[in-house]
Design goal:
Layout (H helix, E strand, L loop, with lengths): L11 H12 L6 E8 L2 E9 L7 H16 L5 E7 L2 H17 L3 E9 L2 E4 L13 E2 L6 H8 L8 H6 L6 H27 L5 H19 L6 H10 L3 H9 L5 H13 L6 H13 L3 H14 L4 H11 L11 H9 L1
Parallel strand pairs: 3-4
Antiparallel strand pairs: 1-2, 1-3, 4-5, 5-6
Helix pairs in contact: 1-4, 2-3, 6-8, 7-8, 7-9, 7-10, 10-11, 11-12, 11-13, 12-13, 13-14
């Protein structure tokens, strides 16, 4: 998380209540690892519980992979929280805790959450943590309200998070198709002007920068792009110089996340990868790793060989925190080196 989005938790039930807002959705049949710096929540990552048909060796190997990614985050203290039926949750908590300990990471607590109750597997005091567990905080708790006030959301499931970046359909899809055709013709004319004037792409670059600045101004003021504006921006983003300009301007503001979600959902499939990557980087910078992952997955689904999407996939898979890459310019340099 970025500093302005950090939340302070004082009790295990508050930590449990805040995890869905850190992830962007309510986890189920999952294992979440939360990084803390004192009372400040730094990050949260979530992985599915091992499937029932996995061997113990496969489950341990998965836990070791998770621990390796967590180690790169640099958090001082960790809490592991399992969601699901008690037996598989307890097994996964034990395996993950062992893997984290082998990385010399400090695990403050391991908590099982099921049927609206939670129980620490570290605490041996039945008065503090009775066998039947303790009630989780209600959905309208103070700390959940604080997260909402800060602009964080918790969708009911990861599937709904995926739907948040899915393509529009129906009449809106048809209108975007027509707008994209108009944008393509406009782009062809622009390229012809570039070539005839021997400007070597300067007109495309200038138009791309102007379209991006206009889009940023619109969303910063709470507006939305028209179909023609969206299509024009998406066609221009295919050009590397325009992509690089957009990369250099990314930051963790919520209005920018809304911009790239809207563009990603509305563009034609051929133009998905650039806005998906820009959404992925912006969400990553904002501490919304789950949203970043589904955005990058969308990019790779449409264009499996897209270099920036592939690089982002590796960054997220290895659990690299945003502060290790001070700006998206580092991503651009890495992409050019390949």
């Amino acid at each position: 998380m970025t500093p302005d989005r950090s939340l302070v938790v004082r009790r295990p039930d508050e930590l449990i209540a805040i995890v869905p807002y850190l992830l962007g959705y309510h986890p189920s049949d999952s294992l979440a690892v939360v990084g803390l710096a004192g009372k400040r929540v730094e990050f949260a990552v979530c992985h599915n519980l091992p499937p029932p048909d996995w061997t113990v060796e496969e489950a341990r190997a998965s836990a070791a992979s998770v621990a390796a990614a967590i180690a790169r985050q640099g958090a001082k203290d960790l809490v592991v929280i399992g969601y699901g039926r008690p037996a598989p949750v307890m097994a996964a908590l034990a395996q993950c805790g062992e893997a984290l300990n082998q990385k010399n990471l400090s695990v403050l607590d391991a908590i099982g959450v099921y049927e609206g109750r939670w129980r620490s597997l570290v605490c041996a005091d039945d008065q503090c943590c009775p066998p039947e567990g303790r009630p989780c905080l209600p959905a309208d708790s103070v700390i959940a309200a604080e997260a909402t006030f800060r602009g964080q959301v918790a969708l009911p499931s990861r599937e709904e998070l995926i739907a948040q970046v899915a393509a529009v359909d129906g009449a809106e899809r048809a209108e975007m198709g027509r707008a994209t055709e108009r944008a393509r013709h406009r782009f062809t004319d622009l390229m012809a002007d570039d070539l005839s004037a021997a400007r070597l792409g300067q007109l495309v670059k200038q138009n791309g920068q102007a379209a991006l600045r206009a889009a940023e101004k619109t969303y910063r003021n709470g507006g939305t792009l028209s179909p023609d504006e969206t299509a024009w921006l998406s066609v221009l983003l295919v050009e590397r110089s325009v992509q690089d300009y957009a990369l250099n301007r990314t930051d963790p503001h919520e209005w920018r996340i809304r911009l790239w979600i809207d563009v990603l959902r509305r563009v034609d499939p051929a133009y998905v990868a650039p806005p998906a990557c820009l959404l992925g980087i912006t969400a990553w910078q904002a501490g919304r790793g789950a949203l970043a992952r589904v955005a990058v997955d969308r990019a790779l689904a449409e264009e499996p060989q897209h270099r920036l999407a592939g690089l982002l996939h590796q960054v997220l898979a290895h659990g690299l925190p945003p502060h290790l890459m001070r700006s998206s310019r580092a991503l651009r340099r890495s992409r050019r080196a390949r």
